[in-house]
């Protein structure tokens, strides 16, 4: 925060202005690995952790918060992701005959 003292129209007149500087979401989110691959057994129960994505954001304050979500690729919603931790887990019973990837 910055605090300014500005002179007014004459002696004894002054205005105090409080300026708050916010961090802008201006740095790119980086992942530890650009390409990640994991294997999971067909017999893995629902809730099994498959892997964890790790993103790093060099912004500050609220802009450093990362939220993970799946937008495509989980055919049949077989996998889910923890929005705060980036942990990908088994969400439905797996069947290799139906989907091998």
From TrEMBL:
<feature type="domain" description="Cadherin">
    <location>
        <begin position="32"/>
        <end position="95"/>
    </location>
</feature>
<dbReference type="Pfam" id="PF00028">
    <property type="entry name" value="Cadherin"/>
</dbReference>
<dbReference type="InterPro" id="IPR050971">
    <property type="entry name" value="Cadherin-domain_protein"/>
</dbReference>
<keyword id="KW-1133">Transmembrane helix</keyword>
<keyword id="KW-0130">Cell adhesion</keyword>
<dbReference type="InterPro" id="IPR015919">
    <property type="entry name" value="Cadherin-like_sf"/>
</dbReference>
<keyword id="KW-0677">Repeat</keyword>
<dbReference type="InterPro" id="IPR002126">
    <property type="entry name" value="Cadherin-like_dom"/>
</dbReference>
<keyword id="KW-0812">Transmembrane</keyword>
<dbReference type="GO" id="GO:0016020">
    <property type="term" value="C:membrane"/>
</dbReference>
<keyword id="KW-0106">Calcium</keyword>
<keyword id="KW-0472">Membrane</keyword>
<protein>
    <recommendedName>
        <fullName>Cadherin domain-containing protein</fullName>
    </recommendedName>
</protein>
<dbReference type="GO" id="GO:0005509">
    <property type="term" value="F:calcium ion binding"/>
</dbReference>
<dbReference type="GO" id="GO:0007155">
    <property type="term" value="P:cell adhesion"/>
</dbReference>
